[in-house]
Structures are given as C-alpha cells and as structure tokens.
Specification:
Keywords: Hydrolase. The protein has about 200 residues and is α+β, with helices and mostly antiparallel strands. It has a single domain, classed as 3-Layer(aba) Sandwich (Cytidine Deaminase, domain 2), CATH 3.40.140.70. Helices cover about 30% and strands about 30% of the residues.
Length: about 200
C-alpha cells in the first residue's frame, strides 16, 4: 500500500524588532485601517548546529533545528526588485511574501474568521498556479499569513501565523518506499561532510 506524502510543517519565529515595526506601522501608516498589508518574511532552512554541553565533559554534539519562517525589522521593507532582494539574502535564507492583518481590538483578534482567511489565501495560491504566475514567481506558492493585535498602551502583542497550502483530494502518495541517504553514500565520513555542507 502506498504511503501518504507528508511534508515538514513550518514553524514561526518573531524577532523582537518586529514588534517595534508593527507599533510604528499602526501609529503612522495603518492607524484604524484593517486592510491587509503585504510584508516580507525569511524562510530559514533546517540546519544542524554544534552544541557544547553546559559544563559537561564530552564532545560537542550536532543538533537539528527545523525550518522556520521568521519576521524581523526587515519585514516592513518590500523590495521593488524581487531578484535583487533574493541576491541580498545569505545562502540559507529565502525571502517570502506574506500578508499582515492587524486588528484594532483584542476581541476582533479573537473572533477573526481564521478559516475564511485561510480559504481566501489558498484560493490565491491556486489562482497563481492556474494562471502560470507561480512559474515566474515560485514564492507565490508559499505565502504566510500573520494576524495581529497591538495593544500600544500596555505594549502587548497578540499574533497568529498561518501557512496556506493547496492539498490534493485524495492525498498524494509515494509510489515507492523512502530510501535512506546512507544507501547512496557508503562512508559515514562522506555522509557527515554532505550534511555539514547542506547546513552551511
């Protein structure tokens, strides 16, 4: 029996500088306007990091860190030239476009129809595929959504990330069983080098 294809889910990271940018955006640009705003995030690929024990003896260990979507102070800069934006990114980062929906009250934030927000974004992804725009701009295939409420009096922020995707019904399945990479790389030292180069 074929196995259903599964993909690693995104996790999200918010850099502290992002909140200062959101406060500035709320006060000087959006004010009470709740229309969605196009923003940028960075997809950071999964990596392996060397970790040394907390005062414990023994060699350093490699620890896997999953892929994640990060928003930071650069989130508010929308490059007019996407190619130039991509060239400026370090090797492990990919700039992606997302949509910020900022609410005016915590009640509005809590009652926001997240299902409709996801459906609408998913429809846009599907339209980009059908129209061929995703061929020219592959980043249209992985937008992110960020719903926020900024309580500027108490400097408290609420947020919710979502990563809309088009899924198949019935789900796609693998035609063959997965094969471990060690089947193709005979020596353990070569495998370690390959993994280190991938994480670089």
């Amino acid at each position: 029996m074929s196995e259903v294809l599964r993909f690693e889910t995104f996790s999200s990271t918010v850099e502290p500088e992002f909140w200062a940018g959101l406060a500035h955006h709320k006060l000087h640009s959006a004010q009470l306007d709740t229309k969605r705003t196009t923003v940028r995030g960075e997809f950071v690929g999964g990596r392996r990091h060397t970790v040394r024990g907390n005062g414990q003896a023994g060699p350093p260990q490699k620890v896997a860190v999953p892929a994640r979507l990060r928003v930071s102070q650069d989130t508010w800069t929308i490059a007019e030239d996407d190619a130039q934006q991509q060239q400026q990114q370090p090797g492990a980062l990919v700039s992606v476009e997302g949509y910020l929906h900022n609410t005016n009250t915590v009640e509005e934030f809590k009652k926001y129809d997240k299902g409709e927000l996801l459906r609408s974004a998913g429809t846009e992804v599907l339209d980009a595929i059908r129209s061929g725009r995703a061929t020219q701009r592959p980043e249209l295939l992985w937008p992110f959504l960020l719903l926020t409420f900024a309580d500027l009096k108490k400097y408290r922020f609420h947020h919710w990330f979502a990563f809309p995707a088009v899924t198949a019904d019935p789900p796609d399945t693998a035609t063959e069983a997965p094969v471990a990479i060690s089947k193709f790389v005979a020596r353990e030292a070569d495998l370690a080098q390959l993994l280190d180069e991938f994480a670089a």
